Amino acid sequence: MPIYEYKCTSCEERFEVLQRVGAGNENLVCPSCGAPKPVKQFSAFAMSHSTTGSSSTANSCSPASRFR
Ligand SMILES: [Zn+2]
């Protein structure tokens, strides 16, 4: 599953979420302030992760993906 980056519309916190392709933001909340429906960010960081190899490091640094 790809990792998406979201930004909170309330406190502007940025966080990463592991999601299925095509999943929306209806069930997501900001891990910092709890505001619903963060805005998806389209950044290049996901592509740079795949080129640098190891996926285990990417998984270990995304605690937000377990927050539901
Ligand atoms: Zn927030």
Description:
The structure is a single chain. The chain is α+β, with helices and mostly antiparallel strands. Helix content is 19%, strand content 19%. The chain contains 2 helices and 3 strands. A 3-stranded antiparallel sheet has the order 2-1-3, with no helix packed on it. It is globular. Zinc ion (ZN) binds at residues 8, 10-11, 13, 30, 32-33, 35.
Secondary structure topology:
Elements: E1 3-7, E2 14-18, E3 39-41, H1 45-51, H2 55-60
The structure holds zinc ion (ZN).
Zinc ion binds at residues 8, 10-11, 13, 30, 32-33, 35.
Which descriptors apply to this entry?
single chain, 68 residues, three-stranded antiparallel β-sheet, 19% helix, 19% strand, globular, binds zinc ion
What is the mean predicted local confidence, pLDDT?
A: 80
Largest sheet: 3 strands, antiparallel
First-to-last CA distance: 17 Å
* Class derived from helix and strand content: alpha+beta
Task: Name the hetero compounds present.
Answer: zinc ion
| Number of discrete helical segments | 2
The SSE string, one letter per element, is: EEEHH
Strand residue percentage: 15-25%
So what's the overall shape?
A: globular
Q: What does the oligomeric state look like here?
A: single chain
Please compute the radius of gyration using only Cα atoms: 12 Å
Number of E-state strands: 3
Strand order of the largest sheet: 2-1-3
